[in-house]
Write a structure and sequence with these properties.
The protein is of the alpha/beta class. The protein is 26% helix and 29% strand.
Length: 220
């Protein structure tokens, strides 16, 4: 069984998740910690729960989901694992603070990526596995991390509660987003709990009947 802790980080209220199971191994998903108090809160939780971080997973290569990568490397020795289709955006990470947030003098280093995974790969920790499901649209490498056993998914900026991610940034593609939404709804059980990159959790069922973007596609 999962224990999931959410930390809301940086000026864009990005969701950073710590996911652990009974073994005390954990994964960090989208470490967006920018301020020192955010980093301290994450470290305090991991220490208090006696967790062992074994993966830093990234749903996509935008700066608000990667601010904390150097913190995780220094604290836990982990580098980011990202979908291969977002490699070009990871290589542009240094310029994103100025491009997207008008932070002109951001000095924090961006560590190299540990590895680039492919669609369908299984990522193991503790007694569980995540399946990496590529969901292009917001970026080409946007990824759902889905645990079939627990019926839980982490959607990054592909699917939000009653909304979806924007497609007007570099690499965005509305047609690809439409296809990704169809694919997710077709593949995942309706009672799957979805933890998005911003905002509150939801379920596939709720989105099927309440998300106007899914309705516009004729999904419900």
């Amino acid at each position: 069984m999962f224990e999931i802790k959410r930390f809301v980080c940086n000026v864009l209220a990005e969701n950073t998740y710590i996911v652990s199971d009974e073994t005390k191994e954990c994964v960090i998903i989208d470490c967006g910690a920018f301020y020192q108090e955010e980093k301290d809160a994450i470290a305090a939780y991991i220490e208090k729960e006696e967790l062992k971080p074994v993966h830093l997973l990234v749903t996509h290569a935008h700066i608000d989901h990667n601010f904390g990568n150097n913190f995780v490397l220094e604290k836990y020795g982990l580098k980011a694992e990202v979908c291969a289709e977002d490699e070009f955006l990871m290589n542009k990470m240094k310029g994103q603070p100025a491009q997207y947030l008008k932070i002109m003098h951001y000095e924090e280093p961006f560590p190299p990526v540990a590895r680039y995974f492919r669609n369908g790969e299984m990522i193991s920790f503790g007694n569980h596995q995540f399946k990496a499901i590529n969901t292009p649209g917001h970026t080409p490498g946007c990824t759902f991390f889905y645990c079939e056993e627990e019926k839980i998914a982490f959607s990054g900026d592909t699917l939000f509660r009653f909304s979806v991610g924007r497609t007007d940034l570099e690499g965005g593609d509305m047609h690809a987003m439409d296809n990704s939404l169809h694919n997710i709804v077709a593949k995942l059980p309706w009672d799957t709990v979805v933890y998005p990159g911003h905002g509150e959790k939801t379920t596939i069922r709720e989105e099927m009947f309440s998300n106007p973007y899914l309705g516009s596609l004729g999904i419900y």
